[in-house]
Amino acid sequence: TGDDLVEVLNYTRALDKEPNEDLFGIAEGKNIIVISLESTQNFVINSTVNGQEITPFLNEFIEESYYFDNFYHQTGQGKTSDSEFLLDNSLYPLGRGAVFFTHAGNEYLSLSKLLKENNYFVAALHPNNKTFWNRNMMYESLGYDRFYNLEDYDVTEENSVGWGLKDVDFFEQSIQYLKEMPEPYFAKFITLTNHHPFLLNEEDMYIQPYDSSSEILNRYFTTVRYEDEAVKTFIERLKEEGLYEDSIIIMYGDHYGISEKHNEALGEYFDKEITPFDVVELQKVPLIIHIPGQTGETLSTLGGQIDLKPTILHLLGIEKETDIHFGQDLFSPEKDNFVIFRDGRFVTDEFVYTTGTFYDVETGEPIDVPNGEQYIQRAIDELNYSDQIIYGDLFRFYNMETGRIVE
Ligand code: GP9
Ligand code: MN
Questions:
Q1: Secondary structure (DSSP) of 37-106
Q2: Which stretches make up the Sulfatase N-terminal domain (predicted)?
């Protein structure tokens, strides 16, 4: 019932932080282009393989953007769909299964709905079957206006690899759709080529595979490099079409691409043994926010995908006191340094908690944290509150206009 929501509300309201005065509203009314970078982990940024850059374009692009290099994915078994769920709701995905499948009929206080209230046209673009991850149903609940899916793309033997339409073709074919959208729009592009098992046609290999004990890792670098090229081409096309100058562009990695099964090969790449501490570090994904007229900066603010919604809302100058979310504006000077993974691991500015042990965030050495239990409990509580909202479909009992609980 609505009573269950009272405690949750007390918790989330205490999390809320004041926006950054300089950036609040800077993106007001502008088009927003979001790019979900499939399986893209942060370690590929500004790194090389066989002496060649893995992401030459992104390395340049981050120089003129806000680049968050201490930002984590928080997905579970729902993978890409979990990252979308985090972005739209600033709620945690579920510990088991995919919330896109299990709770697509719930009431949500989504980013999409708030954007629509503010006159935005909200679209998702992804050249896969619309039922994959139950997206057609969930997008309906979240309030998307349009889902450009497999049916909207011309997919052939020649322009596909692995999971489907190649990213370059996906972006190219999407330009026409962007042009027809009512403005301002929020358009979320979900890339696909850099997906396990990282297959690529010979002509799309801009770098040679790595040489380690894992074919998966070896190929991963080549598909990340291809994705980088696809994004570069897309940005160039946006410029040609006059769609670039006045748009906010947000890119983030959806989740890891290289699982722990490949730790030995990763160890060869990093030339060290991969510890549980390193595994946590490896869950960092890039977050890049390009705002026209802003010089940009690399920010090491600790954050995660849960923070995307409040961050975007503040950039747009939307401050809805009655909204319920677990994340915080990444630009807020008051941002908490606490990132919780779906499985209960967490990171603060002092330590990492994983496999029952605290590690010093600087040295990676195990440390003793006297009040460690409190932190462990906070992570458990926060995940529980979020779960309660989803399992109880608690937003049914909430009126966002008044901030009151309804029966
Ligand atoms: C499928 C794409 C990839 O449509 O989003 O899904 P993933 O396996 O990464 O969740
Ligand atoms: Mn994915």
A1: ETT--GGGTT-EETTEES-HHHHHHGGGSEEESSEE----TTHHHHHHHHHHH-S---SSS-HHHHTTTS
A2: 30-318
pLDDT in tens, 30-46: 999 999 999 999 999 99
The response to whether residue 125 sits with its C-beta less than 6 Å from ligand 1 reads no
Give, using CA atoms, the residue closest to atom 5 of ligand 1: 80
- Measured CA to CA, the distance from residue 195 to residue 160 in angstroms comes to 13
What ipTM score was computed for the predicted complex, to two decimals?
0.99
Residue written as token pair 């946590």: 280
φ/ψ (deg, to 5) at 185: -125, 160
182-202 pLDDT, tens per residue?
A: 999 999 999 999 999 999 999
* Radius of gyration of the chain, Cα coordinates, nearest whole angstrom: 20
Determine which residue's CA is closest to atom 3 belonging to ligand 1.
Answer: 80
> Which tens digits make up the pLDDT trace of 47-81?
999 999 999 999 999 999 999 999 999 999 999 99
Q: Tell me, what's the pLDDT at 48?
A: 98
Q: Both tokens of residue 303?
A: 């954050």
Calculate how far, in angstroms, residue 79's C-alpha sits from the geometric centre of ligand 2. Answer: 5
Find out whether 79 and 255 touch, Cβ atoms under 8 Å: yes
How far apart are the C-alpha atoms of 193 and 214, rounded to whole Å? 19
